[in-house]
Design goal:
single chain; three-stranded antiparallel β-sheet; 32% helix; two-stranded antiparallel sheet; globular; Multidrug-efflux Transporter Regulator, Chain: A, Domain 2; alpha+beta
Length: 87
């Protein structure tokens, strides 16, 4: 059995749509209409606590993925299996 105390949990930062918009310098409507469910994915980048309508964004996951995607080449070829080839 794994000892829970041996892996300290790093607290995550949960942001409202408005707070996220301020951090990434995007309009709130852009986040809701264009990014949510296309680039920002439920379960990875945001949650709906207690099954409600409110959306909370997970800053650490968004920040990590923004950095990862911006470091990739701008030229990408989509593959039939869902992957990408960068060149």
């Amino acid at each position: 059995m794994e000892n829970i105390t041996s892996h300290p949990r790093v607290p995550l930062t949960y942001l409202t749509t408005e707070e996220l918009a301020q951090r990434i310098k995007y309009d709130v409507r852009t986040i809701r209409d264009r990014l949510k469910d296309s680039v920002l994915l439920e379960g990875r980048h945001y949650i709906r606590p207690f099954g409600g309508r409110k959306t909370l964004y997970i800053w650490e996951h968004i920040e990590a993925d923004m950095g990862r995607h911006s470091s990739q080449s701008g030229v990408a070829i989509p593959l039939a299996g869902g992957g990408m080839i960068y060149g």
